Amino acid sequence: MTYAIIYSSRTGNTKLLADGIRSVLPAETCMYFGPVSGAGREAARADVVFAGFWTDKGSCDEGMAEFLRGIVGKDVFLFGTAGFGGSGEYFSRIMGNVGKYLDESCRLTGTFMCQGQMQPAVRERYEGMVGMGRDGDRVREMIENYDRALGHPNEGDVERVKREVRRVADGWGEE
Q1: Angle formed at CA 120 by CA 116 and CA 126, multiple of 5 degrees
Q2: Looking at the DSSP assignment, which residues form a beta bridge with residue 55?
Q3: Which residues have a Cβ under 8 Å from the Cβ of 152 and sit 6 or more positions away?
Q4: Fewer Cβ atoms within 10 Å of its own Cβ: the N or the C terminal residue of the chain?
């Protein structure tokens, strides 16, 4: 079974997961590994597509959305990072939004989401919202979430995505 790992990573969070995925799959069957901007024919020829994204307004970024719209008849494993959140419900909602870009001929074989750290400018923006007529409790929650996201994805997150990919890869060739 051949595969491609395509990712969109603005801050390096999603690439870290992509590297973890690559480390547990056989190198000789990899058709493409790299950013979505460079994905071409090699990625399109793979049997399985691992597509990673950073979260933008509750979905994937536009570059990944465009790539996903063009996939036809493939097994797809979606993985991503989100700076805000951390709850399974929020992550499921994101995956649902991203999955809508896939053609009905594709089969979603797995998903993985984890929190990813955000750029310092985000915290600065949140801090600037304090006392500006915004809901103070909500702003404090946003700052606390920013602080919780620091250092993610961490080693545990990478191990979890590797475990999930191994589970999916164990089923290759059984159909």
Answers
A1: 95
A2: 60
A3: 13, 81, 114, 115, 116, 117
A4: C
pLDDT in tens, 53-68: 999 999 999 999 999 9
From residue 21, how far is each of 2, 97, 160 by CA, in Å?
14, 22, 10
Domains of the chain: 3-116+152-170 (3.40.50.360), 118-150 (no CATH)
Element (H, E) at 114: strand 107-115
pLDDT score at 133: 62
Helix/strand/coil for 115: strand
Q: Give the 3-state secondary structure of residue 170.
A: helix
Task: For 23-91, give the DSSP string.
Answer: HTS-GGGEEEEEEGGG--HHHHH-SEEEEEEEEETTEE-HHHHHHHHT--S-EEEEEEEESS---HHHH
In DSSP terms, 91 is beta-bridged to none
Adjacent-strand bridge partners of 149: none
Report the alpha-carbon distance of residue 160 to residue 166 in Å, rounded.
10
